[in-house]
Amino acid sequence: MHRVFAVVVCCCLLAGAAAAVPGAGDGPSARPVSPVTNTSEYLTITPTALETASYRQASLDVSGALALDTRGLAGRYRQLVLDERFAATDSTSARRDMLRASAARIEARIDELRQRQSAAVGKYNNGTISAREFVIELARIDTAAGRLGTAADRVAARARSIPGSTIGGQPATSWARNRRVELGPLGGPVRDRIAETLRGENTVPLDAANAPNLEGVEAGPDERLEALDLYVETSGEGLVLATVDEGRYYREASLPTERNNTTGGELTDITAALDRVAERYPWTWNHSVTTDSSGDRRAGIYRFTLFYDHGRLTTHLDRRSGEVFAEQQRKRLSGVPTTEPVSETAGDLRLTINRTYPTGPLELALMNRDGEPVDGRIIVGNRTVGRTGTDGHLWTVAPRGSAPVVARTNERSIRIGTDFSPAANRTTPARAMDER
Q1: pTM
Q2: Distance of CA 126 to the CA centre of its chain
Q3: Domain-by-domain residue ranges, the chain?
Q4: What are φ and ψ of residue 173, in 5° steps?
Q5: What is the 3-state secondary structure (H, E, C) of the chain?
Q6: 312 three-class SS
C-alpha cells in the first residue's frame, strides 16, 4: 500500500481546499445508511446539514506534540497526588468525600470536553480557526478523554478500599465504566493516528517507500516519517473523520444533536437497545460473529461493538432519544468489498477505480496496456491524494458526490469522472482486482 509522503520539519501541514456547503445544523434522522456493497452501514451527515467537506493532511508538529505530552504528564502527576492523599487518610468518611469530589470533577470535565468539541467544530466552520488548529484540537480532546478515562478507573480503584462504596448510587466500578462509555464519542481511531503523526510516530520502512518522486524525512536508519491523509466533513456540531493507514480504513462520526432527536423513541433497557442496533445496522448485525456491550440506563448511553469478517463497528445510542449519535469503524482493506469497477484507457495507460461509498475506502489502480503497474500521481477533485507507487495501487478515502479522478505520470495523464455513491453491487473482495 502506498500513501502520500511529505517533507516535514517542525510544523503540521493540513492542506486541501475545503468545500463549503450551506447547512442548517445536523438535521433530522441522520441515521446509519447502507452501502450497496456487503459491508457495514455507516452514520453520515445529511446533505442538507453538511457545512464543509475536504481532504486534509497532518504531519509532524513539535508544538502540538508537546502540548499533548505535557498535559498527559500533568494528568498523571495529579493522579499520583490524589493517590497519596487518599492513602494518607484513615477516615472512611473523608475517603468517601474525596471519591465524590474526584468523581464530580471528572463528570464536569466530560461536559467541558463535549462543549469544547462542539465549539471547535463551530470555529472551524466559520473560519475562526484553521484546519491545522482544528485537527490538533481534535487530537487534544482525544488525549484529554483518555486521561479522564484513566482518572475514572483510578477513582474505582481507590473505592475498593471502602466496602460497599458507591458513586451516584451505583458501584464505583459501574460508575467508571459508564464514564468511559460517555467519553467514547470524544475520541477514536482516526484521532489516535493524528496524535501519533503529530509526535512523529507515523513511519514507514525505507524499502517500502522507494517509489520515484516521493520525498520524506528520515526518522531512523530504516524508516522515514510519513504524512497522514484525512477526509473531514462537518455539520453545525457534528463531524466525520476518515483515513487509510497501514492496510486499514478508519472512520469516526459524531453527531451530538442526534441526542436531542425524538424520532427513535426511548430505550427502556439493553434489550431494546440491541433491537435498535439490529434495526439500524441490519447487515452488520446479521454478519457479526461477536458483540460486545457496555453502558446502561444510568450512563444514558449504550455502546455496542460488532465484529464481522473484515472489520468492526462501535456504535453509541442515546437512551432517551433512542438514536445513534456516534460511531467508530475499522476495516481491513484486503477484505473490503467494492462495486463494479470503473475504468478508462488513454494511450498506454489504464486507470481503474473500485468504489464503496462516500467517505468510504476507495481503491485506484494504474496499469499499462500489458497489465504492468505504473506509478502515477492521483488527483481526486482538485486534491492530490497520493501516488500509486511501484505496485500501481493506491487506497484513499472517497469524497461525497461526483468528482473527476486524474492519474498523472511524467509524460501522460488519464481522467475519469465518477459518482462516489455507486448503485451497482459487487460482493467480490477488492483484492480480486489483482487476480483478474
Answers
A1: 0.82
A2: 22
A3: 1-55+200-436, 61-192
A4: -65, -40
A5: CCCCCCCCCCCCCCCCCCEECCCCCCCCCCCEECCCCCCCCEECCCHHHCCEEEEEEECCCHHHHHHHHHHHHHHHHHHHHHHHHHHCCCCHHHHHHHHHHHHHHHHHHHHHHHHHHHHHHHHHHHCCCCHHHHHHHHHHHHHHHHHHHHHHHHHHHHHCCCCCCEECCEEHHHHHHHHHHHHHHHCCHHHHHHHHHHCCCCEEEHHHCCCCCCCCCEEECCEEECCEEEEEEECCCCEEEEEEECCEEEEEEECHHHHHCCCCCCCCCHHHHHHHHHHHCHHHHHHCCEEEEECCCCCCEEEEEEEECCEEEEEEEECCCCCEEEEEEEEEHHHCECCCCEEEEECCEEEEEECCCCCCEEEEEEEECCCCECCCEEEECCEEEEECCCCCEEEEECCCCEEEEEEECCCCEEEEEEECCCCCCCCCEHHHHHCC
A6: strand
3-class SS letters over 174-238: HHHHHHHHHHHHHCCHHHHHHHHHHCCCCEEEHHHCCCCCCCCCEEECCEEECCEEEEEEECCCC
Which amino acid is present at 3? R
Which residues lie across from 396 on neighbouring strands?
362
Cα distance between residue 296 and residue 319, in whole Å = 8
List per-residue pLDDT tens for the chain, 436 residues long: 444 333 233 333 333 334 444 444 444 446 799 998 899 999 999 999 999 999 987 644 435 554 555 555 455 646 655 565 657 677 778 878 888 889 999 999 999 999 999 999 999 999 999 998 999 999 999 999 999 999 999 889 888 888 878 888 889 899 999 999 999 999 999 999 998 888 775 444 544 444 433 344 444 444 445 778 999 999 999 999 999 999 999 999 999 999 988 777 899 999 999 999 999 999 999 999 988 998 888 889 999 999 999 999 999 999 999 999 999 999 999 999 999 999 999 999 999 999 999 999 999 999 998 999 999 999 999 899 999 999 999 999 999 999 999 999 988 999 999 999 887 544 333 333 333 3
Torsion sign across C-alpha atoms 96, 102, 108, 111: negative
> Quick one: CA torsion of 250, 252, 253, 254, rounded to 10 degrees?
180
Residues comprising the chain, all counted = 436
Whether residue 190 contacts residue 230, with contact meaning beta carbons closer than 8 Å, is answered with yes
How crowded is the C-beta side of 204, counted as CA atoms within 13 Å?
22
